[in-house]
Amino acid sequence: MNQSRRSILKLLGLSAAGLCLTVEKLRAQSRGEVDVLDMAIVGAGAAGLTAGFLLHEAGANFQIFEADARHGGRVLRHDGLADFPLDLGGEWIHTNRRVLNRLSGRADAAALAREYRPLTSDVWDGARLRRRNFYARAWRGEYRFIDSTWFDFFDRMMARPIRDRISLHAAVAGIDTRQDPCVVTLADGREISARHVIFTAPLNVLKDGDITFTPALPQEKRQALTGATMPDGFKLFLKFSRRFYPDLVLFDDGYETPEAELLFYNAALDKPTEQHILGFFGHGVVATPYTQLSEPACVQAALTLLDRLYDGAASPAYGGHVLQNWSNSPFHRGTYSFFHGASPATLGAPVDGKLHFAGEAYNQRWDGAWGAVHVAARSAYDAVAEIAG
Q1: Confidence (pLDDT) at 1
Q2: Secondary structure, 3-state, the chain
Q3: What pLDDT is stored for residue 3 in this prediction?
Q4: Is the pTM of this model over 0.90?
């Protein structure tokens, strides 16, 4: 293994020697079996791409199988509405921006992000709108990309060297770990042999039974699924000819919880632009009514709400939008995970030393953090470390 690979794996907390030895053992097992992968990765989101990046650095023979027509999962870039790129999926960096350095193995990646520093905020209590700027100050410590997106980070840092290892339109229908090598069956009937499988598909894909596991997943893992939820959610960006809103518009009318949230925010804040772009994010039960609307009706509902809050200022200034309904996205079906009486560590635990899990819902480090993009990527280190022994 060359020095650059050793440096990256050391930075990510993995044993370069251990992973290199594991790859050599897998190669020895597969000698003469040219069609056997060292690892098959299910899903090309943040976790899948990070796992692929690490395995590429270690020289492993792997392939990523993605059901969608694109890689990125729940991070998605949009160009066209604004003169800067928009994050239609995961947007915030819910930790210190230096995590970008640790994820990518680059010392300069943190410079891509800046702290989100809103100054003004309004709070709607269901009957009255009040200016409460101290809520804006409470957002210190949240970061966003300056002139790029989470998608760009994974596309440039992780996906670039492994594009030929990503199979798109390649939905996985079954995973059989009874034998060695394991057999991954695609929806089109193809069978892929691999010594290890890293599963990174979203929680609702796992819960909905899209993929058959043989043998069935352990009882404790199936039980954990009953206590895990991935609620409805959407992301809407609205363009206006003038600004009539503060940096944040929060709602406090009895239903705001970590699992149910509506939020308007100044998406252009700290961006290299003079345009007026307002983000509208919703997830949980309060988002469900919006996700069930058609796109025109959803946009009209947002404008109607803003008109109510700001004396009819929104509709006359409206100049376009872009909407991503994550609930209706067939390969995602929601936003991010929450747990009740269950732990993501249980969902993330490996099975029979062959089937590994990585993703925001499968975080084995119980530190109170899940759901975030960096957690999804970080969990890939753990899955690769398991394989390395």
Answers
A1: 43
A2: CCHHHHHHHHHCCCCHHHHHHHHHHHHHHCCCCCCEEEEEEECCCHHHHHHHHHHHHHCCCEEEECCCCCCCCCCCEECCCCCCCEECCCCCECCCCCHHHHHHCCCCHHHHEEECCCCCEEEECCCCEEECCHHHHCCCCCEEECCCCHHHHHHHHHHHHHHHHEECCCCEEEEECCCCCEEEEECCCCEEEEEEEEECCCHHHHHCCCCEEECCCCHHHHHHHHCEECCCEEEEEEEECCCCCCCEEEECCCCCECCEEEEEEECCCCCCCCCEEEEEEEECCCCHHHHCCCHHHHHHHHHHHHHHHCCCCHHHHEEEEEEEEHHHCCCCCCCCCEECCCCHHHHHCCECCCEEECCHHHCCCCCCCCCCHHHHHHHHHHHHHHHHC
A3: 43
A4: yes
